[in-house]
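ZP: hey, is the flavin mononucleotide complex queued? I don't see it on the tracker
AM: it wasn't, my bad. submitting now with these inputs:
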Amino acid sequence: MRKTGGDHKGRPYNGRSSHAQRTDTETAMDQRNFTGDYDTLLELVKTRVSVRNLKPDPIPDDYVTRILEIGRWAMSGANGQPWDFVVVKDAAIKKELFRVYAEENNDFIYWMEQQRDFKLRHPSFQMTHDEALQKQRTGVGWSIAPVLIVILGDGRRQWATVQGAHTFGRDQSHLTDGLANTAMMMHLAAGALGLGSQHVTIHIQEPFKRVLGVPDLLTFSLIMPIGYPAVPPKEGVRRPLDDMVHHETFDMSKYLTNEQVLKYLYGLREKTVPVYSHSYTGRPPVPDGGKA
Ligand SMILES: Cc1cc2nc3c(=O)[nH]c(=O)nc-3n(C[C@H](O)[C@H](O)[C@H](O)COP(=O)(O)O)c2cc1C
């Protein structure tokens, strides 16, 4: 067991930004790890946003490879790397995936979202009366993107990790977390290359598997359309840091009652619906979902 934190060569870890005070020796030691700085990373993280309206213009093959390369380096439980990536550029296959999405996946979600208060529904389902959005969804949608990266999971690879992680009814977290990590890395890579990307969750997997010939045993996790943005960038929305950070022990003053959770969700929707709308259409939503 290590006595102090450090990497495999015994160099100390430090999370200091480029602004932190360092000795020359420390700086030299850092250089072999990462030659960039914290601010560059923060800027990338903050400027990346979901872009749900992409130009059909082709992107260089090299960009796709570079995005996949970053995804390859994601963390995963015991380094199981439970992912496979399918790169789809063929127009007919993209169209078929989107048809399945609109007809089978969204049909189910649309129904589920009708069960709750309009303002609490997922933003995509608060906008059904906005003509432009409707056209997007029932038209070509993300199938117009030059490239789709499909992220698949192989649950067997997660067994690289300790068996305890999967016992006592806990979920397959080492599979889903690994897939989420590789996705996040690739979204950032796309942003770093000046591309937009979307994270299309797949809820009803089977029809998508049939389109791509994916074995039943695998998980069809998500589709990541990537391409040049067709809408101008818009700043993302996040909770303040102080709201989510606790020091030493859990701060019960930050624990939400059920009423507070509902209030939070309503408030969140108010902030994120305009951002969502923007990511599709480049403008705010029609008031009252266009009902008024
Ligand atoms: C697990 C997960 C599932 C998501 N599913 C979808 C999705 O199905 N469709 C979509 O357009 N965006 C999806 N997103 C993107 C989120 O809506 C988005 O990251 C969030 O609203 C913050 O906005 P930003 O990405 O623009 O910063 C998903 C993101 C994650 C991490």
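AM: back. The two ends are 65 Å apart (CA to CA).
ZP: great, adding it to the tracker
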